[in-house]
Design brief:
Porin; eight-stranded antiparallel beta barrel; alpha+beta
Amino acid sequence: MRRILSFLMALFVIAVAGLLAYGYYRTLLSEGSPKQAAFVKGLFPSPVPNGFLKGSVDGLEVSWKGKKMHARDQTGINIFAGENGEEERYPFKTDHAKGLRDPALDVLRIDYDLPGNPFWLRRITDEIVQVERGTYLGKVHLRIVPGYPFTMGYFRLEK
Protein backbone atom coordinates (compact mmCIF):
# COMPACT_ATOMS: atom_id res chain seq x y z
CA MET A 1 0.00 0.00 0.00
CA ARG A 2 2.85 2.38 0.86
CA ARG A 3 4.48 1.72 -2.54
CA ILE A 4 1.24 2.44 -4.36
CA LEU A 5 0.82 5.73 -2.49
CA SER A 6 4.43 6.69 -3.20
CA PHE A 7 3.96 5.84 -6.87
CA LEU A 8 0.74 7.87 -7.08
CA MET A 9 2.38 10.81 -5.33
CA ALA A 10 5.34 10.68 -7.74
CA LEU A 11 2.92 10.54 -10.69
CA PHE A 12 1.08 13.57 -9.32
CA VAL A 13 4.31 15.55 -8.85
CA ILE A 14 5.44 14.69 -12.39
CA ALA A 15 2.06 15.73 -13.82
CA VAL A 16 2.11 19.07 -11.96
CA ALA A 17 5.72 19.71 -12.98
CA GLY A 18 4.83 18.94 -16.60
CA LEU A 19 1.84 21.28 -16.52
CA LEU A 20 3.93 24.09 -15.03
CA ALA A 21 6.73 23.53 -17.56
CA TYR A 22 4.21 23.68 -20.40
CA GLY A 23 2.72 26.90 -19.00
CA TYR A 24 6.13 28.55 -18.74
CA TYR A 25 7.01 27.38 -22.26
CA ARG A 26 3.76 28.72 -23.79
CA THR A 27 4.26 32.01 -21.96
CA LEU A 28 7.82 32.31 -23.23
CA LEU A 29 6.71 31.65 -26.82
CA SER A 30 3.69 33.95 -26.61
CA GLU A 31 5.43 36.85 -24.92
CA GLY A 32 8.24 36.77 -27.49
CA SER A 33 5.91 36.79 -30.50
CA PRO A 34 5.01 39.65 -32.87
CA LYS A 35 1.47 39.48 -31.48
CA GLN A 36 2.80 40.53 -28.07
CA ALA A 37 4.46 43.56 -29.67
CA ALA A 38 1.12 44.45 -31.31
CA PHE A 39 -0.76 43.81 -28.06
CA VAL A 40 1.32 46.24 -25.97
CA LYS A 41 0.85 48.93 -28.65
CA GLY A 42 -2.92 48.50 -28.41
CA LEU A 43 -5.25 50.84 -26.55
CA PHE A 44 -8.14 50.35 -24.17
CA PRO A 45 -11.18 49.91 -26.47
CA SER A 46 -13.05 53.17 -26.98
CA PRO A 47 -15.92 52.86 -27.19
CA VAL A 48 -16.18 49.56 -25.33
CA PRO A 49 -17.32 46.92 -27.85
CA ASN A 50 -21.04 46.21 -27.98
CA GLY A 51 -22.83 43.51 -29.97
CA PHE A 52 -21.34 40.59 -31.87
CA LEU A 53 -17.60 40.52 -32.57
CA LYS A 54 -16.36 37.92 -35.05
CA GLY A 55 -13.52 35.89 -33.54
CA SER A 56 -10.55 34.10 -35.06
CA VAL A 57 -7.36 32.38 -33.94
CA ASP A 58 -4.49 32.51 -36.45
CA GLY A 59 -3.58 29.08 -37.77
CA LEU A 60 -6.50 27.26 -36.14
CA GLU A 61 -9.92 26.25 -37.39
CA VAL A 62 -12.13 26.29 -34.29
CA SER A 63 -15.85 26.05 -33.53
CA TRP A 64 -15.62 29.34 -31.59
CA LYS A 65 -17.15 32.09 -33.74
CA GLY A 66 -16.74 35.13 -31.51
CA LYS A 67 -18.16 37.01 -28.57
CA LYS A 68 -21.42 38.82 -27.98
CA MET A 69 -20.66 41.83 -25.78
CA HIS A 70 -23.10 43.89 -23.70
CA ALA A 71 -21.22 47.11 -22.93
CA ARG A 72 -23.87 48.65 -20.68
CA ASP A 73 -24.00 45.82 -18.12
CA GLN A 74 -20.37 44.73 -18.67
CA THR A 75 -21.24 41.15 -19.61
CA GLY A 76 -21.03 38.90 -22.61
CA ILE A 77 -21.07 35.36 -23.89
CA ASN A 78 -19.08 33.27 -26.38
CA ILE A 79 -20.66 32.11 -29.63
CA PHE A 80 -19.88 28.66 -31.06
CA ALA A 81 -20.96 26.80 -34.19
CA GLY A 82 -23.36 24.07 -33.13
CA GLU A 83 -25.30 21.27 -34.77
CA ASN A 84 -28.39 23.48 -35.02
CA GLY A 85 -26.71 26.80 -35.80
CA GLU A 86 -25.01 29.10 -33.35
CA GLU A 87 -24.83 28.27 -29.64
CA GLU A 88 -24.15 30.66 -26.77
CA ARG A 89 -21.79 29.25 -24.15
CA TYR A 90 -19.57 30.46 -21.32
CA PRO A 91 -20.79 33.82 -20.05
CA PHE A 92 -18.32 36.38 -18.78
CA LYS A 93 -18.11 39.78 -17.16
CA THR A 94 -15.88 42.62 -18.34
CA ASP A 95 -14.10 45.52 -16.69
CA HIS A 96 -11.37 48.09 -17.23
CA ALA A 97 -8.15 46.72 -15.74
CA LYS A 98 -4.38 46.69 -15.98
CA GLY A 99 -2.87 43.79 -17.94
CA LEU A 100 -2.08 40.71 -15.87
CA ARG A 101 1.35 40.38 -17.51
CA ASP A 102 1.46 43.92 -18.90
CA PRO A 103 0.71 46.07 -15.84
CA ALA A 104 1.41 49.37 -17.64
CA LEU A 105 -1.31 48.58 -20.20
CA ASP A 106 -5.04 49.34 -19.81
CA VAL A 107 -7.11 46.42 -21.11
CA LEU A 108 -10.70 45.28 -21.26
CA ARG A 109 -10.57 42.23 -18.98
CA ILE A 110 -12.88 39.30 -19.75
CA ASP A 111 -13.42 37.24 -16.62
CA TYR A 112 -14.95 33.75 -16.77
CA ASP A 113 -14.85 33.15 -13.00
CA LEU A 114 -18.64 32.95 -12.73
CA PRO A 115 -20.95 30.39 -11.12
CA GLY A 116 -22.17 27.96 -13.76
CA ASN A 117 -18.98 28.03 -15.84
CA PRO A 118 -16.89 24.84 -15.79
CA PHE A 119 -14.04 24.73 -13.26
CA TRP A 120 -11.34 24.70 -15.96
CA LEU A 121 -12.79 27.81 -17.62
CA ARG A 122 -12.96 29.78 -14.38
CA ARG A 123 -9.12 29.81 -14.32
CA ILE A 124 -9.00 31.66 -17.67
CA THR A 125 -8.89 35.43 -18.11
CA ASP A 126 -8.90 37.09 -21.51
CA GLU A 127 -7.75 40.64 -22.14
CA ILE A 128 -8.45 42.72 -25.23
CA VAL A 129 -7.00 45.92 -26.64
CA GLN A 130 -8.04 47.90 -29.69
CA VAL A 131 -5.46 47.72 -32.49
CA GLU A 132 -7.56 49.46 -35.16
CA ARG A 133 -11.05 50.91 -35.31
CA GLY A 134 -13.37 47.91 -34.87
CA THR A 135 -10.46 45.45 -34.53
CA TYR A 136 -9.26 44.02 -31.24
CA LEU A 137 -6.40 41.75 -30.24
CA GLY A 138 -7.07 39.39 -27.36
CA LYS A 139 -4.68 37.60 -25.04
CA VAL A 140 -5.59 34.40 -23.16
CA HIS A 141 -4.20 33.84 -19.65
CA LEU A 142 -4.41 30.72 -17.51
CA ARG A 143 -4.26 31.42 -13.78
CA ILE A 144 -2.81 28.38 -11.97
CA VAL A 145 0.15 29.75 -10.04
CA PRO A 146 -0.87 32.68 -7.80
CA GLY A 147 0.74 35.88 -9.05
CA TYR A 148 2.04 34.29 -12.27
CA PRO A 149 -0.57 33.91 -15.01
CA PHE A 150 0.50 31.85 -18.01
CA THR A 151 -0.06 33.39 -21.44
CA MET A 152 -1.54 30.71 -23.66
CA GLY A 153 -2.00 32.65 -26.91
CA TYR A 154 -3.84 35.35 -28.81
CA PHE A 155 -7.09 35.80 -30.71
CA ARG A 156 -8.63 38.49 -32.88
CA LEU A 157 -12.08 40.09 -32.65
CA GLU A 158 -13.62 42.21 -35.40
CA LYS A 159 -16.80 44.27 -35.53
